[in-house]
Write the structure tokens for this entry.
Amino acid sequence: MASESAMARSNTAPLPIDQTRAWKALAAHARSTRRRTLADLFAKDRRRAEKFTVEGAGLRMDYSKHHVDATTMRLLLDLAETAGLKARIGRMFRGEKLNSTEHRAVLHVALRAPRGTVIKVDGEDVVPHVHEVLDRMSAFSRRVRSGSWKGATGKRIKNVVNIGIGGSDLGPVMAYKALVHYSERSMNFRFVSNVDGTDFVEAVRDLDPEETLFIVSSKTFTTLETMTNARTARTWLLAGLTKACGRKGLPADATARHFVAVSTNAKEVEAFGIDVENMFGFWDWVGGRYSMDSAIGLSTMLAIGPERFAEMLRGFHAMDEHFRTTPLSRNLPVIMGLIGVWMNNFLGYPSLAVLPYDQYLSRFSAYLQQLEMESNGKHVTLGGSRVAWDTCPTIWGEPGTNGQHAFYQMIHQGTRIVPCDFITFCKPISGLPHHHDLLVANVIAQAEALAFGKSKAEVRAEGVARELVPHKEFDGNRPSTVILGERLTPFSLGTLVALYEHKVFTQGTVWQINSFDQWGVELGKVLAKRIIPQLESRRAVSDHDSSTNSLINYYRAHRR
Ligand code: F6P
């Protein structure tokens, strides 16, 4: 099959991936190996763990507890080749406009490119612009962290509230929680995303407006939730400052001292009343869900400081380089992506649980839900036809060991197979090494239990009453990946996030979809805009279907 670029040049659509020889070979291979268990695979090869473990950018990924052998991996790599993956990676790094429905380059990798790297979009090198913004963010962060940036009444800023949603929230929240150990503990960081007023009210209830800085983070600066919260924040701030200033009155720069913006839309930022001097920009070639290392990470930088932020960018870049230069057969994101395709499309497992054994990563799965599902939850190919294969699985998860006491019952004995990504680190941050040994023992044990289970004979041998034997049996043969890092640091967080970003790219390439648009979020937004005035109207509503009319009218009758 010709690559996507060759297709584009010759103006022919690529062969649908499920019609290719590589896909058909995998389908046949899946049928012929269906009965083979993980126990069989391990029994046959004492060096299996070594053969199916890859390392890169400081991460070690053991995928030996998957239903794969050398043939499976060869066929998966053929599929990647058929999909033109290698060439497409090059095209992304060169700044080609892979986001075809929005005619945009896909260049989150430029956000962490070291000074002096040249990456051009429409003939212009974007890397100097990236570093100019990083420099401004650093200068601003230093002023706020040192206390030299003062609020309107002369008090130092102690509280930072990020207002944003989706990619303008999930990355900042996840990163703050992940790196709180490295953060400035004399400051408070809060995150407001939901248009539900309680989110804002709870975030600011114990904050002093005189000591509070709001970061309005929105790529478009038009998002309903964010702009509603930003306006409410401005009202709250001005009311608080007016009270504090008393007869002296509010200084003219009151809003400017307490509001900064992160956006690509200078016009709307200005219209909101934020001085564009206090705006940190990014570009249309950064997707919202790929933006936590752009200016959208300003709250992260304020929390951990510019040096640690730069360390995080170096981690991202290390994984970028691994992805760009390592042969596909030893390339972590590629292997992770291909194993995902194998499970999703050939073994038929519709979800993936991401289970970090690290409490600091408590929002990592939520972050990945947007990264993976907004990117690859698509049913149309790049060429505009309906896909005939499944795309993104459902991504979910919670940190271990908590998940073990909640939903692991289903993972071990439920009727559906749930592949798991286990993530953990060798060295603890807590200073409580015994806790850490218990944590890591649990993650290793879970992967072992899932793979090998416990047979009826083993249960019987424990003297279990006959009628309980079927309840205590574990089928095993359930796949998982174990990802190990040395320690959770800004660097390793960067490598981990970039690993998943590039995994998403790999899968989107195989599935022949655009991983960088998100048209599927539009319809609900448009309909909500139509319904808002109807909820407030005095007239009964009748222009929707009967269920929607009835919901609107019931709410109208009970809303106050
Ligand atoms: O809901 C869709 C979406 O556009 C996401 O892709 C994005 O991360 C989020 O909304 C927030 O958008 P913005 O940063 O423009 O406010």
Observations:
- Residues 1-10 have pLDDT under 50 and may be disordered.
